[in-house]
Amino acid sequence: MVSERVPPHSEPAISTTAAPPSKPSMVKAWVITLMLLASTLIAYLDKAILGLVAQPVMADLGLTATQFGTISTAASLLGPVVTLLFATVADRLPLKGTLFTLVLLWSLIQLPIFFAASAGMLVVTRLLLGAADAPSNSVMHSMAYSWWPNERRGLPAALLTTGASFGKLIFAPVLVVIIAALGWQYGFLSVAIMGFVWCIGWAFVGKTGPYAEPVTPRPAKKTAEEAAATAADGSPEDPTAGTKAPLRSILLTGTFIGYLALFSSVGMLVMIVLTWLPSYFEAGLGFSAVTAGSLFGVPSITSVIFLFAYGAWGDRALKRGVPARVVRTLIGGGLAMAGGLSLMTLPLADGVALPMALLMLGYGLSTSIYAIANPTLAQITPPAQRTGVLSLGLALSGLIGVPGPVLAGMVLDSAKASSGSPADGYTSAFLLAGVIVLIGGALFALLANPERDALKVEAARAARAARTS
Question: Which segments constitute the Major facilitator superfamily (MFS) profile domain (predicted)?
Answer without folding.
Answer: 32-452
